[in-house]
Amino acid sequence: MSVWQAFIELLKRDLRLAMRRRAEIANPLLFFVMVIVLFPLGVGAEPNLLERMSAGVVWVAALLAALLTLDSIFRSDFEDGTLEQLLLSAQPLSVMVLAKVVAHWLVTGLPLLLVAPLLAMLLGMKSEAMGTLMLSLLLGTPVLSLIGAIGVALTVGLRRAGVILSLLVLPLYVPVLIFGAAAVDAAASGLPVAGQLYILAAFLAMALSLAPVAAASALRISLS
Amino acid sequence: MSASPNSTLHLQADSVECSRDDRLLFENLSVEVSGGEALILEGRNGTGKTTLLRILCGLRRPDEGEVRWSGVPIEECAVDFHRHMVYVGHLDGIKRELTALENLRVLQTLSGRGRYSVEEALEAVKLGGFEDIPVHFLSAGQKRRAALARLLVTDARLWVLDEPFTSLDVHGIELVESLMDGHLSAAGALVMTSHHQVHLSAGVIKRLNLSEG
Amino acid sequence: MNSFMKWVHKWGSPPWFYRVSGMMLPWLTGLFVITLGYGLYAGLVLAPADYQQGDSFRIIYVHVPAAWMGMFIYMVMAAAALVHLVWRIKIADVVLISSAPIGAAFAFIALVTGSLWGKPMWGTWWTWDARLTSELLLLFIYLGIIALHSAVEDRQSAGRATAVLTLVGVVNIPIIHYSVVWWNTLHQGTTVMRLDGPAMAPEMLWPLLSMAIAFKLYYVIVMMLSARGEILARESKSRWVRELVGGE
Predict the structure, then answer these.
(1) Which of A136, B58, B122, C127, CA to CA, is 20 to 30 A from C206?
(2) Hey, are the CB atoms on B110 and A9 less than 8 Å from each other?
(3) Residue C237 and residue A210: Cα distance in Å, rounded?
């Protein structure tokens, strides 16, 4: 079978599995909503303050929600033995990893992206910034899934995987957060956003080419 | 795949050594298996049978020595090696939420078609009539047989099995042994570990006991 | 390239590493004491006080070399990671994991001294300026490497997993650094901790370089001590270790 066919088949398999565990899709969304709702309760409902914070808060909440879901990329495959079967298939492992990460993003990242504008409204984000918000999340959340996959691959067999995973992955998430939030802030102030968005696109290109390879090496090590 | 399967079907471990958790499991260990042969690894729990099996598959790198497939180190011919090999370990390697049919169809797309169709393979392991149920509804023995169905679905000449008879009843064990006999008669190779007594009527049987020295 | 690889392979042999590092240690220690002594004396006593900051600027003699070490050690770890993964040299992962706590300690020292430096000038214990924030993230990266190594039970896998993580980090550290610098110009615009005007006066520079060398020597000494212990533990059953222990 060709590599492309294998990629599509694995992608379809993971999507089919996600559909059969439909309830889990709600988890990151609920978390996303909760974090955003908690902020006004914590810092006060003064409209100017909330509006100025809105870009950062939405982005941080999206980042944390993405972090929460990372474990599911490889955990169930690890536990039922299908992950080691992937290592033994004659297909390039980095392509298989990419298929799984794409499926993961479609199920966890894309919903965040779609819900973000409504939540941003709760914080009073200006409507001029909404388009940039969605575009920055569209470029940024796949990077979060890709980089996160490396962290999960390194920690998949470990006992306290969750804590270590956050520690490993958060420094790597910082550039995406900085440029994502900055793009939305700039849009809210009427300033140009092309620079920040190009940089996010560059991150995405880098992550697409390098992260699957790194995650594949990490998987081989974790399963040895 | 080739004109004379016997000549290219050769798996060899050369002076391999492995330690785990600061305990030396084995050193200077050499084994080989060719078409028509069955290598059975025996020994108490914890003697490194599973580790050796995983080294032979390429899942783990030995601390010393190397494993060769048709004379070539498996790191160099990984794709070719994995195309000719199938592994069933302790874990079943199938998704619980999918049906047996769906699991094997994905496998065929990833690993290539063999002589049996997916339906024929499931019939052969006596799961006919159960192929459309999500696997988590099957009994432990049925799950194991669904896992073993992958042996028939691909074209693999080398079977590497870790405790294949787990969860199987007497009939299940006989079924799997007959599948192994068929494989060996067709000049396939087999490496396995087992706590049970294995009764094979075809092929040359080699035994290696890891508990002794 | 060939002679470099031969040199790497020589150091890659545990008995060689153990023996040669043992011979080097006394010399390195002596050199360390000299450079540290000169650096501290010249920096803390001899160099003139800065006309703006007074005596509090002297903390740069610890802060700046510590910050340099944080990066330098990471580069050494990245090189060791590459050597371990690509050329399968076994000692390399010992160098890597022995270096990580030292790198983390220097990053921490850079953070603390940077924070102490800021207090007299800005009144706060912490400012989110580019250097301190970058240093904080570097510290997290170090802690991640240490945490991963201690969490993986199998030693072979632990070495290789931390090597992969180190390499992932080395690609990301420049990106993180420049992102933080950019972020800082966006939100604050204050550049903190300029330690030089157009050029640094020589009386300030020599002690600084001496401290930098002293810190590097300290790193090599402590890393070797730690690595030697790890090598003995790993090779405890081999003949050369038994001879070494039995002979004494």
Answers:
(1) C127
(2) yes
(3) 40
Quote the radius of gyration of chain A (alpha carbons, Å). 18
Closest CA to A147 of A164, A117, A181, A172: A172
Report the number of distinct structural domains present in chain C: 1
Task: List the single best residue of A172, A176, A177, A224 to mutate versus C (max C Cβ within 10 A).
Answer: A172
Decide if C186 and A182 are in contact by the 8 Å CB cutoff. Answer: yes
Cβ neighbours, 10 Å, residue B85: 23
Please give the helix or strand (H or E) that residue A203 lies within, else none: helix A194-222
Structurally, chain A folds into a number of domains equal to 1
**Structural domain contains residue C15:** no
Q: Which residues of chain A have pLDDT under 70?
A: 1
Token readout for A24 is: 């889990």
CATH superfamily to which B1-84+158-213 belongs:
P-loop containing nucleotide triphosphate hydrolases (3.40.50.300)
Distance from the Cα of residue A37 to its chain's centroid: 20
Contact A175 C141 (CB under 8 A): no
* Cβ neighbours, 10 Å, residue A44: 9
Residue C45 burial by CB count (10 A; 0-12/13-18/19+): exposed, middle or buried? Answer: exposed
Say how many CA atoms lie within 13 Å of A179 toward its Cβ: 30
Provide the domain limits for residue A129.
3-222
Cα C78 to chain centroid, rounded: 12
In angstroms, what separates the C-alpha of B151 from chain A's closest C-alpha?
13
Cross-strand partners of B204: B37
Distance of CA B26 to the CA centre of its chain: 21
> Which residues constitute the domain of residue C39?
24-48+58-191+201-247
Return the closest-CA partner of residue A90 out of B7, B101, B186, B107.
Answer: B107
Average pLDDT of each block of 10 consecutive residues along chain C (248 residues)?
78 85 90 88 76 72 90 95 90 93 96 85 80 92 96 90 96 91 73 48 79 92 92 83 74
Q: Look up residue B11 and give its amino acid.
A: L
Report the mean per-residue pLDDT for chain A: 94
Q: What's this model's pTM, rounded to 2 decimal places?
A: 0.90
Q: How many CB atoms lie under 10 A from the CB of residue C8? A: 15
B21–chain C nearest CA distance, Å = 6
- The DSSP secondary structure of C221-243, one letter per residue, reads HHHHHHHHHHHHHHTTTSHHHHH
The token pair at A180 is 């994502």
CB nearest to B59's CB, from A1, A76, A223: A223
* Helix axes of C202-234 and C14-41: crossing angle, nearest 10 degrees: 150
CA C143 to centroid of chain Cα atoms: 13
> What is residue C105's predicted lDDT score, i.e. its pLDDT?
96
Chain C positions in Cβ-Cβ contact with residue A210 (cut-off 8 Å): 171
Distance CA B189, CA A8 (A): 32
Within-domain flag for C5: no
Q: In what order do the strands lie in the sheet with B189-193?
A: B85-88, B158-162, B189-193, B37-42, B204-209
Does residue C230 form part of some domain? yes
Q: Could you tell me the two tokens for A203? A: 């991150």
Domain-located, residue C18: no
Q: Which helix (H) or strand (E) holds B72?
A: strand B72-73
Q: How far apart are CA B22 and CA B79, in angstroms?
A: 32
Whole-angstrom distance, CA of residue B202 vs CA of residue B18? 32
Q: In whole angstroms, what is the distance from residue A120 CA to residue A98 CA? A: 30
**Contact yes or no for A176/A211 (Cβ under 8 A):** no
10 Å CB burial of residue A34 (0-12, 13-18, 19+) is: exposed
Chains A and B: how many Cβ contacts under 8 Å? Answer: 75
**pLDDT for position C197:** 40
A110 CB contacts (<8 Å, ≥6 apart)?
A141
